[in-house]
Design goal:
The chain is of the alpha/beta class and 207 residues long. Helices cover 43% and strands 19% of the residues. The chain contains seven helices and eight strands, in the order αβαβαβββαβαββαα. The strands form three sheets. The chain has a four-stranded parallel beta sheet, sandwiched between helices. Strand 4 (97-99) and strand 5 (104-105) form a beta hairpin. The longest helix has 22 residues, at 3-24.
Length: 207
């Protein structure tokens, strides 16, 4: 619960930053949550009209990302929107940490922005959404989902069915064994439909 709200928050940030990027001829780099999975970056980037989306599942070439931005500049659009998952990493490199001792991710947006400015000559600014993605007014989808999960969980408890959790599968709420869910990550498929859609629309994923 909360994924749709986080995506909406990131998308709204992109919408608001687009006008300042265009009017000041800047590249706006938005760093969003996503340690191991790039769903928030990918979905908000698609919805918010990003030109470059960098996610953990696809190690990126900064040169290819910059090539997309340079291409836009040469075609008379000297501004771009970039969305970066906090866990995104360049080819052959590891994740970027703001606190390595505590394994706290952060800073990849700054690195990407600095390299974009260096390679394209366009002024680049960074916005790290951070905790803004975790709060605020929930999207209607998340409100309804919370109600559905709550009702289903109470039914399980009343029936004495413990050791299970509620989950959404194909828009249906189901009870699944906890061990079936623990330790499994739902990551973006680099060859999946959402990635193919983004690339078909001209979005660079840095590959």
């Amino acid at each position: 619960i909360g994924f749709r709200t986080a995506v909406m928050t990131a998308m709204e940030a992109l919408d608001k930053l687009h006008s300042t990027a265009e009017s000041h001829h800047r590249v706006m780099v938005v760093e969003v949550m996503g340690n191991k999975a790039g769903w928030i970056a990918l979905e908000s980037g698609l919805a918010g009209g990003a030109d470059v989306i960098l996610i953990p599942e696809i190690p990126f070439s900064i040169e290819k990302a910059c090539a997309k931005i340079a291409e836009r500049k040469e075609s008379g659009r000297p501004f771009s929107m970039v969305v970066v998952s906090e866990g995104a990493k360049a080819v052959g490199q590891g994740e970027v940490y703001q606190d390595a001792a505590r394994r706290r991710l952060g800073g990849v947006g700054q690195q990407v922005a600095a390299e974009i400015e260096k390679q394209t000559g366009l002024e680049s600014r960074v916005l790290v959404l951070g905790h803004l993605q975790r709060g605020g007014s929930p999207a209607s989808f998340d409100r309804v989902l919370a109600s559905r999960f709550g009702v289903h969980a109470v039914r399980l408890a009343a029936a004495g069915e413990f050791g299970k959790m509620v989950a959404l599968r194909k828009n249906e709420v189901e009870a699944i064994p906890i061990e079936e869910a623990v330790g499994k990550l739902n990551v973006v498929d680099p060859g999946g439909d959402l990635v193919r859609t983004a690339e078909s629309l001209g979005v660079s994923l840095g590959r």
